[in-house]
Amino acid sequence: MKLNFTKYQGTGNDFILVDDREQSFPQDISIIKNLCDRRFGIGADGLILIQDHPELDYRMIYFNSDGSQSLCGNGSRCGFAFAQSLNITREHATFETTDGIHKIKSENGIIHFQLFDVSEVNQLNDQEWFVNTGSPHHIVLNEDVAALDIVSNGRQIRNLPEYSGQNGTNVNFAQLLQNGVKLRTYERGVEDETLSCGTGATAVGIVAGKLGYKSPVSIQTKGGELSVSFKYENEKFIEIWLAGPAEKVFEGSVTI
């Protein structure tokens, strides 16, 4: 089978995008793993299918590079850019993905993805937090994230027994700055550090909000800058938006 694809990246978080409106893509984990492999495949942090939806603008099905599924903030932004290129939608859309229905829009070349309200922000100790923004995120505050061994430290926390019931957790190491937050993330499903993580950036932005940072919060990832905006009302974070660029890298075809 010949598969046409387009590669997109959002602040270094890269994805294989497939027009699956005919629903012909074989959702086989081994195929997804092979396509995402950086040495023997196309190479990506994840694979995204864009499908028709009976009521909404489109459906987005997201797979991590190991074939597992989760909400992906940067992937949602890249999926929207791809849907625009297919003339499925224009400046704004409503679509269904892993955890439900979301709104998304484009303003001045920046794509804004709305996440669900967050009412639980759990402080574990002086330096650690847990927030679920559609995907689970363990957050560790650190004074010098550049010096950390992200893979070793992240993998240890990702596999803690308390997270076994939810297939582990993503792990974010955040350095609080005067003008924002510097972030490095170990992503479950990729099982490595990624250059950026949208739902992780959102979780860290929410913790920053708890610590007194004003919306929007600038999140500096290794792949570029993201922005997290929100309102905090009645002990709940509402109107949460993740904003950043989404860019086409290349397109091609491969036999699967």
Automatic annotation (TrEMBL):
Transmembrane segments: none annotated. SUPFAM superfamilies: Diaminopimelate epimerase-like. One of its GO terms (cellular component) is cytosol. It catalyses: (2S,6S)-2,6-diaminopimelate = meso-2,6-diaminopimelate. Keywords: Amino-acid biosynthesis, Cytoplasm, Isomerase, Lysine biosynthesis. It is an enzyme of class 5 (isomerase). InterPro entries: DAP_epimerase_DapF (IPR001653). Catalyzes the stereoinversion of LL-2,6-diaminopimelate (L,L-DAP) to meso-diaminopimelate (meso-DAP), a precursor of L-lysine and an essential component of the bacterial peptidoglycan. It holds the Pfam family DAP_epimerase. This is Diaminopimelate epimerase. It is found in: Cytoplasm. Belongs to the diaminopimelate epimerase family. Its EC number is 5.1.1.7. One of its GO terms (biological process) is lysine biosynthetic process via diaminopimelate. The active site is at C72, C197. Pathway: Amino-acid biosynthesis; L-lysine biosynthesis via DAP pathway; DL-2,6-diaminopimelate from LL-2,6-diaminopimelate: step 1/1. Homodimer. HAMAP family: DAP_epimerase. GO terms for molecular function: diaminopimelate epimerase activity. Substrate binds at N13, N64, G73, N74, N170, E187, R188, G198, T199.
